[in-house]
Amino acid sequence: MSLFEYKILPAPRRGEKSREAKTTVDRFALTLSQQINALARDGWEYLRADTLPCDERSGLTGTATHFHAMLVFRRKLLDLPAVVVTPMAVAPLPTVTVDAPSGAAPSLGPAPIR
């Protein structure tokens, strides 16, 4: 079993200019891969991209909900040894015999005083 720490960063909003990336999509993909590779060098593993709502102020008294793309990364903190659970041996319950008069139901009520 492993313990992880997580890092969440906003996704880039636009691609950086580059000689090898001519189109907008290529520039955006290059910027995204550079960001992911930079974090991977520090041990961060890319997990996923999420789009999450966020309430932000709008004007003096209003609020508006905006959606932000977030990149989720994780990295191992430490490895814990796997815990092996083995079932316990259960001893059978002892059998109990009760000597009761045959054919007669037990009487209900308080126990007789002896």
Protein model, in words:
The chain contains 1 helix and 3 strands. The model has no long low-confidence stretch (mean pLDDT 84). Strands 1-3-2 form a 3-stranded antiparallel beta sheet, with helices on one face. The relative contact order is 0.22. By secondary structure, the protein is α+β, with helices and mostly antiparallel strands. The protein starts with a strand and ends in a 35-residue tail after the last strand. It has a domain at 2-79. It comes from Rhodobacter ferrooxidans. This is DUF4177 domain-containing protein.
Gist of the model:
16% of the residues lie in helices and 36% in strands. The protein is of the alpha+beta class and 114 residues long.
Count of individual beta strands = 3
Instruction: Using the CA coordinates, give the radius of gyration.
Output: 34 Å
Average of the residue pLDDT scores = 84
Q: Percent of residues in helical segments?
A: 10-25%
Query: Helix tally?
Result: 1
Instruction: Give the H and E element order.
Output: EHEE
Q: What percent of residues are in strands?
A: 35-45%
Strand order within the widest sheet? 1-3-2
Q: How far is it from the N-terminal to the C-terminal residue, by CA? A: 63 Å
In terms of per-residue confidence, which ranges show pLDDT below 50 for 5 or more consecutive residues?
none
Write down the overall geometry: elongated
Q: Structural class, judged by helices and strands? A: alpha+beta
Q: Sheet bearing the most strands, described?
A: 3 strands, antiparallel
